[in-house]
Write a structure and sequence with these properties.
The chain has about 240 residues and is of the alpha/beta class. The protein has helices at about 25-40, 55-60, 70-90, 115-120, 140-150, 185-190, 195-205, 220-225, and strands at about 5-10, 45-50, 95-100, 110, 125-130, 155-160, 180-185, 210-215, 230-235. It is built from eight helices and nine strands. Strands 4-3-5-2-1-6-8-9-7 form a nine-stranded mixed beta sheet, with helices on both faces.
């Protein structure tokens, strides 16, 4: 087993499956099974999930509904809905979980307290972080990097629909080639959309590696936890 504690970042859009909106129960089920397979190895798992399948702050601004800050808070609430759904799926598979939110919602989740989060992980509970950083103008990618640093995770694992980082979007460019590994500096220089620059900088400053991999391929998450080469490693 290569890692003792990991932070898994999932996008809200991934939960849609083939739908245009909302949560696909089959995808949720698959993700819960993948998480359980890693928990069974004795790895401590924390999760940050986005909210783009329900609401994106940018959408609200572009549509003229709200200003940026208000839109971002709406997006944070969307992440809590996804986090609750993932929590339910994990518990259905026999895992002990705790949902910690950066925005206080005592009836449904605990407030984020760093030491409490670490203690839950040490007790073998899956810790799901909701509501991003609790601040507008920050993405859930940044929330994932921040929480990973705070809980002293060994790695950030970004689960996506593609099997790593490419020179261009492989879904749009058939000539795109995949990187086995890449430095933070190369990500900056080549303008690759791995995570937003704030998230990348936070990982770089704290020497925290990032691995981008295909979460939809069964067994990938467990293989990574066991130390297999899966996806693309971002490092110093």
């Amino acid at each position: 087993m290569k890692y003792k504690r990991v932070l898994l970042k999932l996008s809200g859009e991934a939960l849609m499956g083939d739908q245009q909106y909302g949560i696909d129960a089959a995808v949720l089920e698959q993700y819960a099974e993948e998480i359980r397979s890693v928990v069974e190895l004795g790895v401590e798992v924390a999760v940050v999930i986005g909210g783009g399948n329900i609401f994106r702050g940018v959408q609200g601004v572009q549509g003229g509904i709200v200003d940026r800050a208000q839109g971002d808070y709406m997006g944070m609430l969307a992440t809590v809905i996804n986090a609750m759904a993932l929590q339910g799926a994990c518990e259905k598979h026999g895992m002990k979980t705790r949902l910690l939110s950066a925005i206080k919602m005592e009836q449904i989740c605990e407030p984020f307290i760093r030491r409490r989060a670490i203690r839950h992980l040490e007790k073998g509970r899956v810790v799901i972080f909701g509501a991003g950083t609790g601040n507008p103008y920050f993405t859930t990618d940044t929330a994932a990097s921040l929480r990973a640093v705070e809980i002293e995770a060994d790695v950030v694992l970004k689960g996506t629909r593609v099997d790593g980082i490419y020179t261009a979007d492989p879904e749009k460019d058939s000539t795109a080639t995949r990187f086995e590994s890449i430095s933070y500096a190369q990500v900056y220089e080549q303008g690759l959309s791995v995570m937003d620059l704030t998230a990348i900088t936070l990982c770089q400053e704290n020497k925290l590696p990032i691995i981008v991999f295909d979460m939809n391929k069964k067994g990938n998450f467990r293989a990574l936890a066991e130390g297999d080469r899966v996806g693309t490693l971002v490092h110093l």
